[in-house]
Amino acid sequence: MRDATPQTVYLKDYTPPEYLIDSVELDFDLDAQHTQVNSRLTMRRNPESAAAGVSLVLTGEELELISIQLDGNPLTESDFTINLETMTIQQVPQQRAFVISIENRINPKANTALEGLYLSSSMLCTQCEAQGFRKITWFLDRPDVMTRFKTTLSADKTQYPVLLSNGNKIGHGDLANNRHWVSWEDPFAKPCYLFALVAGQLECVSDSFTTMSGREIALEIFVEQHNVDKCAHAMQSLKNAMRWDEDSYGLEYDLDLYMIVAVDHFNMGAMENKGLNVFNTKFVLARPDTATDSDYEHIEGVIGHEYFHNWSGNRVTCRDWFQLSLKEGFTVFRDQQFTGDRTSQAVKRIQDVNALRTRQFAEDASPLAHPIRPEAYIEINNFYTLTVYEKGAEVVRMLQTLLGAEGFRKGCDLYFQRHDGQAVTCEDFVNAMEAANGVELSQFRRWYSQAGTPVLTVSQHYDADAQQLHLTIQQSCPPTPHQPDKAPLHIPVKLGLLAADGSPATFVINGQQQTDITLNLTEAEQSFVFDELAEKPVLSLLRGFSAPVNLNMPRSLEELAFLFKHDSDTFNRWEAGQQLVVQVIFGLIEDLHNHLPLHLNALVVEAFHSLLNAEADDLSYQALLLTLPDESYLAGQMTVIDVDAIHHAREFVKTTLAHALEDDFNRVYLIHHRDESGKFDADAIGRRRLKNACLSYLSQLESSDSYTLILAQFEQAHNMTDQMAALSVIVNSQHPAKASCLDKFYQQWQQEALVIDKWFALQASSYMPNTFATVQALMQHPAFDMKTPNRVRALIGAFSQANPVHFHAKDGEGYRFLADQVLALNTLNPQIASRMVTSLAQWRRYDKGRQKLMKQQLQRIVMTEQLSKDVYEIASKSLA
After folding, report:
1. What pLDDT is attached to residue 1?
2. Can you tell me the distance from the alpha carbon of 315 to that of 419, in angstroms, rounded to the nearest whole number?
3. From CA 640, how far away is CA 405, in angstroms rounded?
4. What is the Cα–Cα distance from 100 to 709, expressed in whole angstroms?
5. DSSP per residue, 780-847
6. Is the distance from CB of 722 to CB of 293 less than 8 angstroms?
7. Coil, strand or helix: which one is 700?
């Protein structure tokens, strides 16, 4: 077991820093194993601190101290003390500024946790969010200490010809022994989590951008030489994001240089360090033959996200890490808007809600549930969660819904105006919205402090004589850890009514004639009356998914089929189709439990037949309408999850549709099957998505004709979208060429790490027999590396998070396998290890046999000696 239980940090205990660092000069003598860091901190007492102590406490981990001085005078061992995480200097001046100078040494090569300064292949790079800077040198490593940084890097010119840091380059030169130096200065004060350093053998792809005020910004993307030809899309995405932020928020970039560096080893997607973004290669590199359409969209979205952080995260940052959603929820909302504007608002909204309901709602229903502004944590890295990011974005979206687009923009303008250059709180963000619009949002603030997914229970009654629809909505929220009782939230509910012919129904409410409305739900139960309705309408509720809630509303299959055909709200039309299939699947599951023969309701066949024969303006949207609910989403709707029945029933629906509509699927496939490699306009992407959706259904036939069609697409594809689509259905079928196709794909792409990640993930997520044996074999594959986060996510992550039918096998081997890998990763990379543990967190949702087996592995993890804080927190909370 652990030597000591890690301490919990509480929001209620926040106090301002006792000292401030006005400026820091950093000198790095870079080396893969022996980097020396000299820091010169100009400090002073914080006038806002009420603490009476005179000691200065700096944070630092895994640092070798060489020397320390106060105002140029060396300190002796009696002047300071060092423990595992802090350095305490007994006495420092209280009435004037002073300078602390520290020399220390670090070993980047040994840093497999990828926090602080570490080695990625032959490149040195940093990751300082949330608390990585303390692994570089002793500092006040907290986001409310804003400091101006000047950084000088010196290194061997052959090994590290490119030396980068934040801000503007202010000097460079040569040194003896084939060494050189470069100095950088950031004119903006920033917290140390935004510090960045990169050194390596890199090529630069350059461009420029002219801002709305006419300033010319140099844009530079740094990659390894063999990746230079995969940067064009990332560069264009950056320029698109810069222009969009000016047009949509009036925000202009503030430095003369914007740099992006792509690295192979990275725990996250990317990092918004001021002026020097460090990216996982997955979200920079793209070429039509190596990246799918989804990869292209994700790259643009993540490039946008990190760029938008320049204001919503950098210019205005977090006071403390409990406020993480202040920057992340807001910026996710901004990147969602951006991607929707650049692609399809309908498709983007559905994709975001689908991910939210499948994964974040599951987090809300688990022992790991927490508000978007948590009250406590043991390891802050564990709160980079779907709740903080995706649910945080939904809370921001609700503010826009309540205030309107114009009112929301006014609130954003005031927020940036008030707090530029400050470290602030979620409360400050809501305050700005209130002040700019003259509204009161005290009840809405509960979204920040209350965990769980609310449930809206809806009942309706139509009074034909009075021509009125009476609508009653009750809101409730299940208990979550430390929050058994929930207060009512302020929930915006957008709705419309449909007439019998499918057209919008006009109604009168509060004396006004309307065709749609946003209701303000603020009480545990509220009723609404809609007048002047000559016939009973069909209710289209929660349009655009106007709030992150579960909707409990009885619907007949006929009513859902009607909405699937007629609803003008793109989200609710898709949702009607999803719920139609959900109801049918759960009916089939009941038949399975009762050992009854399975039959597919004709309404589903007819609905899909109509869809396949309809003209569509947005083919990507049409492809989404044809997609069945995900098995993980279906699991979330069950009190006791039956993974085998879910899989069986869903596959039955898909296979039955494939046989019933084979001609339609073939026809639509052939209409849209063409070689448009290199084309990424909406029409080309839509054609690929629609034809590959049809291919997925046709693969269910397991016929010689379908095998021939799929193999032809695999062998003739000139773009990764079509090749991956074909290979994915081959891997999930009995296709006789499966082994040869997998081998051919590997031989073709073995030098492209990101493509081989896809190869691993496809096999790990296959629902065909013997997948677990395949995963075990792939763990020994020469291309698998536990020290590479992308590869770990592709194999271990895909198996445990995207393959429920095999991960949850009754013998518990999947659980034991995951626990083995978590414990192996615990000493290598605690962040990645803790994220893997979450697959066991919902153990209470399964049958008693699986519960016992999952719990055993969680207990095994918790009882392991030298367990990291990251893993301990997730495993212990899962068991609590």
Report:
1. 40
2. 8
3. 41
4. 70
5. TSTT--TT-HHHHIIIIIHHHHH-HHHHT-TT-HHHHHHHHHHHHHHHH-HHHHHHHHGGGTTGGGB-
6. no
7. coil
In this structure, the dihedral spanned by the alpha carbons of residues 345, 346, 347 and 352, taken in order and rounded to 10 degrees, is 80
CATH of 1-201, one of 3.30.565.10, 3.40.50.2000, 2.60.40.1730, 1.25.40.10: 2.60.40.1730
Contacts of 510 (CB under 8 A, 6+ apart): none
Distance CA 789, CA 205 (A): 26
* CA dihedral of residues 92, 94, 99, 104 (deg, nearest 10): 30
Beta bridge partners of 518: 494
- Domain chopping of the chain, boundaries: 1-201, 661-738
Closest to 872 measured CA to CA, from 818, 825, 830, 820: 830
pTM over 0.90: yes
Q: Between the CA atoms of 297, 302, 303 and 309, what dihedral angle is there, to the nearest 10 degrees?
A: 150
Tokens of 51: 């603490």
Q: Which two tokens stand for residue 203?
A: 């090529």
The three-class DSSP label of residue 125 is strand
Q: Which residues are catalytic?
A: 306
Mean pLDDT of the chain: 97
Please give the C-alpha separations between residue 399 and each of 406, 431, 476, 492, in angstroms, as whole numbers: 11, 12, 20, 9
The pLDDT, as a whole number, for residue 4 is: 63
> Checking phi first, is residue 286 left (phi over 0); if not, alpha (psi -120 to 50) or beta?
beta
Q: Is 50 in a helix, a strand, or coil?
A: coil
CA angle 797/799/801 to nearest 5° reads: 60
Nearest of 776, 862, 854 to residue 815 by alpha carbon: 854
- Show the tokens assigned to 604: 């589903």
C-beta of residue 713 within 8 angstroms of C-beta of residue 726: yes
Q: What is the reported pLDDT for 268?
A: 95
When computed from its CA atoms, the radius of gyration of the chain, rounded to whole angstroms, is: 28
Going 273 to 277 to 278 to 281, the CA torsion angle's sign is positive
Average pLDDT over residues 748-764: 98
Nearest residue to 699 (alpha-carbon basis) of 766, 744, 749, 601: 766
